[in-house]
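BUG: 3D viewer hangs when loading the predicted structure for this chain

Environment: internal workstation, default settings.
Expected: structure renders.
Actual: progress bar stalls at 90%.

Input used:
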Amino acid sequence: MTHAIRRKTKIVATLGPATDPPGVLDDLVAAGLDCARLNCSHGDSRDLLRRAREVRAAAARAGRPIGVLFDLQGPKLRLSASTAERPVLVGEEVTFSSDGPYAAAPGHATVDFAGFAHLVTSGSEIVIGDGVPRFAVQSAGDRHVVARAVSAGAIAPRKGINVVRARPELPAITDKDVADLDTAMLAGADFVALSFVRSAADIDELRERLRAGGSRASIVAKIETVEAYERLDEIIDASDGVMVARGDFGVTAGLARVPLMQKDTISRSTKAGKFVITATHMLESMIQAPEPTRAEVADVANAVIDGTSAVMLSAETGVGRHPVEAIRIMSAVAEAAEETPVVHGRAQVGEYQGDTPSATVMRASVVLAEQLAAQLLVVPTTTGGAARDCAKFRSRTPILALAHDPGVAAKLTTEWGVHPVVADVGGSPYELTETALDVARDEVGLASGDRVVVTAGPRAFFPDATNLIVVRELP
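Structure tokens produced before the viewer hung:
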């Protein structure tokens, strides 16, 4: 069985200057890349479109789908360029405003966002940079916010700002996001990630924009604010998948809360049948070093053991010195971690009650494949739903998803244990099964005596659901 089938946890990697040289992207795909992330915070529309085209070309050369994920920047607040750099001590009061004349005044800092004072309440916190200094808001007026430092640090021009428990006036989708979203739809993005999500309403707004633009892209909600975590279930329900964005969550909620938030988000997403990507600082040392630290390896392995659908590399591949090796190591660590029995059966197949006939059939196919120790579960799928219904059970049996639509196949590249292939299967149940087995032989290299479970819902016979299971032992 091929390496790509053996590893069930998917790998998302960020493209950037380090992946632009000729041949590097092909090497990333060969090393195990499943989905390419394009960070809209860096590069212009030309760079984003060029890299999206290069991913499609690399996928065609490799003969397998590679997803394309556009990651929107979201509402990014910063101190103005005119803010004076200076240290801040615990207990010191600073007045924040968006009024330029106060920039250089003692005890003042200017924010590059008109109406900043209207975003905060007396219960908000203002966090600078990577988490220090941190301020508790004392009062908020029409034009100024008075806050007291609860941790020491420094303020400086252009440093980023996070507001914990911001008012809803902070836009979910900025003007820059709208322009980047147009680029994503032009590129035919498979996924769009929304930054700084605070509620299901933010997801709904993005979905309306995608539908208006004729896009079928799946929405990834980035869980990186306290508000998002407090509304996690509604956000999971509204989105197609979530990302555990540990960087900004660590800034806003504090580093100590990140591990438990990660485990809880993975657990709740998996139970809801939604894919979940774990991201940020996974192999951070490999931006420079050819090998990760043992702690980083343990971090990746623990995310896999927790049940994450995918793990993500950011600067390690975007600007790092060893992008291909980072994916190779990520793949090897994930595959090794998947050997633990804790990973499999996480969704409790035996207790699950499907809410549709098709979902119940998919559950039965997973149980049957497990009990028969089948080498492969083959799932022809029109929308991807049948493959997702199987993936959520975290079965030991690899899933080969056959999709006639390349867009559907690409959107399955973040689903745990699913190996998507573009293949047109149709006709009678017998013809569908034979075609599915032929594709399985070509893709996986099955041997004589291998047992395969095939699900089917031939459109001409069963137009509305998957309701047939076939068990075959290869001659």
